[in-house]
Design a protein that fits this description.
alpha/beta, two-stranded antiparallel ribbon
Length: 272
């Protein structure tokens, strides 16, 4: 039976396989809302689930040397989608030996996805992640260009640093603390947010995101930000770009419209 399944994967076009997958497996569910993060955490497995790390590791290893595939959320994807606006911005702003901080960058998902599209040879890409990801990243993936850290304060301070937060702020318990830490680090000149869910609600709401079998049946708390309230954090930054994320997925939840967004901020320089 297993041999037949593997043969079908070879002879059936990927688009058909994706369609079968979408029909067979349920979509992501959002359970709640909950009164607070603690309640949502009690009712989910969380990001520390070892199965998530193992699948991310396997998919990253399989895709890092293959320009036709990339890893996202533990899955190996074979489409031509990539964050065009982020690549354009990096190519226009980065210089040799500049630093990119990838906050919540997993084992280098975004780096391996777009590295061939960035025209800077000596890029320094620093990933901030949980301890188990950092330990594995240092052991298997770290080299002269990509490195792993557990805390923003441990990263080399370079003026003109660009920080990227892709699909991360909605999954942390205290996003305000992280945002303030970033804003107060004067060496960071640009902030790039991508795959960020914003709602037209006037308040943040907390749910449990329950993923289908395709994603290992994992679940974790998620904060759906009010767009109006969220943008207030960056009132002292200039908005360079604001639009849909490259994944282009918008949906409704409990009567509110939710958008996956890509936003690029630049620090407003004060008087010299």
């Amino acid at each position: 039976m297993i041999k037949i399944y593997k043969l079908l994967k070879i002879i059936i076009p990927q688009k058909i396989l994706n369609l079968i997958y979408n029909l067979k497996y349920q979509k992501v569910k959002y359970i709640g809302p909950y009164n607070n993060w603690f309640e949502a955490k009690k009712n989910s497995r969380g990001w520390s689930d070892q199965k998530i790390l193992e699948k991310v590791k396997k998919s990253t290893l399989a895709s890092m040397n293959n320009s036709n595939t990339y890893e996202r959320d533990g899955e190996i994807l074979r489409d031509n989608m990539y964050p065009v606006n982020i690549v354009k911005f990096l190519n226009s702003e980065l210089n040799e030996n500049n630093l990119v901080i990838d906050f919540g960058g997993s084992l280098g998902s975004l780096y391996f996805h777009i590295r061939s599209k960035i025209g800077i040879e000596n890029i320094k890409w620093s990933i901030i992640e949980q301890t188990n990801y950092v330990n594995l990243g240092k052991k298997i993936f770290q080299n002269k260009k990509i490195s792993f850290f557990e805390d923003l304060k441990d990263v080399e301070k370079v003026d003109g640093t660009i920080i990227i937060l892709s699909s991360i702020l909605q999954y942390v318990e205290n996003p305000e603390k992280i945002i303030n830490q970033i804003i107060n680090l004067k060496s960071i000149k640009h902030i790039i947010l991508d795959r960020l869910i914003l709602s037209n609600s006037n308040q943040d709401k907390i749910y449990v995101q329950k993923n289908p079998r395709k994603y290992l049946n994992t679940s974790y708390p998620i904060r759906i930000f009010s767009e109006e309230k969220f943008l207030e954090y960056f009132k002292n930054f200039k908005t360079i770009f604001k639009g849909e994320s490259y994944i282009g997925t918008n949906f409704e939840l409990d009567g509110n419209k939710l958008n996956y967004c890509n936003i690029i901020f630049s620090r407003i320089e004060g008087p010299k």
